[in-house]
Write a structure and sequence with these properties.
Blueprint: H1 2-6, E1 13-15, H2 24-29, E2 33-37, E3 53-57, E4 61-62, E5 66-67, H3 75-95, E6 101-105, E7 108-111, H4 124-140, E8 144-148, E9 154-155, E10 167-168, E11 172-174, H5 179-189, E12 194-199, H6 200-207, H7 213-221, E13 230-235, H8 260-267, E14 274-275, H9 281-292
Helix pairs in contact: 3-4, 6-7
Length: about 290
């Protein structure tokens, strides 16, 4: 019976987080592959599913470098950030023989609270150069590099990420956040081994900058203006219209208020999205049923 139902599902992967209760048995039961973090500390943790790894997420914030600003105007810091991501690309290739996708966040255009002064300011041309360099390195590792659209960061008066009494902060911004800037980054980099990764929750945090609900929906749909560029998706439910949706949250697909048309377009993109959450088998079955019905 399940086998018949799967015919109505696109191929899917899931974020493999054992601490959330997911196991190889669950992954295999629902005919999934997995996405994992691309740092050394997770290798042992994910070893039970190493052969099922489809996508590897590059780090974007880790000590001692802080946010890995590979567009930083400080050359020494920028090279250190690039070298760290390259190291993780090589490790992903060695640790996960069947992996196909390497996901990377954009780089900060401005991150005022950065621990390293030289990484607080980015430059767009350096960002594009960094993407090309990393796409080339990913190709050597046998992985397709995909650029994920970033959050819009909402910060309250105390300087904390929050949906309450907060505003989008010009001092904490990334390249490749808004639909046109995300698409332009791909076009300007113009590398055959670079595509895009759409994150639905991140898209919603940007959409909350738009007051009119109809325009907000159109903004979400505009992420699909170049569907041929999208090779991967981080598929989450989210609150697209309620204030709480200003903060990134990974809900099961179908939970929240993302317009149905957004989910429908993802289902028929022809890619293998990652369900970027696991909240138990009952929640998984519920969202798979929702996806079947799209």
């Amino acid at each position: 019976m399940k086998e018949f139902a799967f015919r109505m599902l696109p191929p899917l992967s899931v974020s493999f987080k054992p601490e959330a209760g997911i196991t190889r048995q669950i992954v295999e039961r629902y005919d999934l592959l997995v996405e994992v973090a691309g740092t050394e500390k997770v290798v042992e943790q994910v070893s039970p599913v190493a052969d099922l790894v489809y996508a590897v997420h590059m780090p974007f914030n880790e000590a001692p470098l802080g946010r890995l600003n590979y567009a930083a105007t400080d050359a020494d810091y920028r090279h250190r950030a690039l070298d760290r991501i390259k190291q993780c690309l090589r490790a992903a290739s060695g640790n996960f023989a069947n992996a196909e996708i390497a996901v990377i966040h954009g780089a900060p255009s401005r991150w005022a609270p950065h621990e390293h002064a030289g990484a607080r300011e980015g430059d767009y041309e350096l960002f594009i150069e960094g993407l090309r360099e990393l796409a080339e390195h990913a190709a050597d590792a046998g992985l397709l590099l995909v650029l994920e659209n970033n959050n819009a960061y909402w910060i309250d008066a105390q300087g904390k990420f929050s949906w309450r009494d907060s505003s989008e902060n010009p001092d904490t911004r990334y390249y490749a956040c808004t639909p046109p800037h995300w698409l332009r980054s791909w076009e300007d980099a113009a590398h055959e081994n670079l595509k895009l990764c759409l994150d639905t929750a991140h898209a919603c945090t940007f959409a909350h900058t738009i007051d009119d609900y109809a325009e907000r929906t159109q903004a979400l749909l505009s992420y699909f203006d170049r569907p041929e560029a999208i090779a991967h998706v981080h598929w989450n439910g989210h609150l697209a219209f309620e204030p709480e949706g200003r903060v990134d949250e990974h809900l099961p697909v179908g939970d929240g208020t993302i317009p149905t048309e957004v989910h429908r377009r993802i289902k028929y993109l022809g890619v293998r999205p990652t369900l970027e959450h696991y909240q138990g088998e009952a929640a998984l079955e519920r969202e798979l049923e929702y996806i079947r019905g799209l």
